[in-house]
Amino acid sequence: MKVYCLLVILICSVACQLEQKTDRSEGKENGLKKGYLERKEMKDSVCLSQTLSWDDYAMTVKTVHLFDSAVDKEPIFIPAIWSQKIEFRKGGKLLQTHWSPALSTERKLSRTKKVILENVIDEVGVLAGRYGHMFFLDGVSPCNSCTEMKLVFSLEGKLLFAAYGSRYEKHFRYGNWEKIIEEYGIGEENFIERMELKGVLEGPRY
Questions:
Q1: Residue 169 binned pLDDT confidence (cut-offs 50, 70, 90)
Q2: Global pTM exceeds 0.90
Q3: What is the distance of C-alpha 96 from the center of its chain?
Q4: Alpha helix ranges (H) inside 111-176
Q5: What's the rounded Cα separation, in Å, for the pair 175 and 135?
Q6: Residue 192: enclosing H or E segment and its boundaries?
Q7: In the beta sheet, which residues pair with residue 169?
Q8: How far, in Å, CA of 125 to CA of 37, rounded?
Q9: Do residues 45 and 25 touch, judged by C-beta distance below 8 A?
């Protein structure tokens, strides 16, 4: 009877340890946190902020929307975006700040002429490698210039890779993607977590 009781206690103890290990593992895999959309209205614009976090690291994209549009009476058709700033933090401490490398273009808006970005970041995410994780950002062109933009940063905010342009013209390129794949151990089995930035393409009144 004593042997049986000891065996039951031992099995329960091992099961508890395995459960604790599993919980820690799942917590590590689910280190992604998606922040809420924050709005800060100003005189003629609104700043939309959204944060994506991985463990203690956080990336915030701040988009300044003008209260205007490239199409009269249609404020959500072509967003008039003045600027986009990318901030990187660890434990709440600011590490790096970058501005979107997208070109500016002068557009006749519904009220007046304004300089706006011709390509805007509308999606962000975390790319997982065997040897490290990275933040990535995707940009599209709401001004029908057919450009695409892809940015990859380390969790600390160091620019690792950037490609911006169209099939006809390359505006900006930095880094070697093949080298990053090898260094971080990125393969087909690695997962990509994506998050759409709310309100960027919908307009400032989202």
A1: confident
A2: no
A3: 15
A4: none
A5: 15
A6: strand 192-196
A7: none
A8: 15
A9: no
Letter for the amino acid at 38?
A: E
Q: Which residues contact 192 (CB under 8 A, 6 or more apart)?
A: 125, 126, 127, 128, 136
Q: Which residues, in sequence order, are bridge partners of residue 120?
A: 140
Please report, for residues 7, 10, 33, 90, the alpha-carbon distance to residue 24 in angstroms, rounded to integers and kept in the order given. 26, 21, 16, 21
Q: What is the pLDDT of residue 188?
A: 62
Residue 191, pLDDT score: 61
Token pair belonging to 132: 């490290």
For residue 185, give both structure tokens. Answer: 């151990």
What's the pLDDT score for residue 39? 84
CB 93 within 8 A of CB 169: no
Residue 153 pLDDT > 60: yes
What average pLDDT does the segment 103-112 reach? 75
**CA 150, 134, 177, 158 torsion: positive or negative?**
positive
Asked if 81 and 100 count as a contact pair (C-beta separation under 8 A), the reply is: no
pLDDT tens profile 14-63: 333 333 332 222 334 457 788 778 888 877 788 999 999 999 999 999 99
* Phi and psi at residue 48, to the nearest 5°: -105, 120
Q: What angle do CA 90, 55, 173 make, to 5 degrees?
A: 65
Q: Rounded distance, CA 163 to CA 87, Å?
A: 19
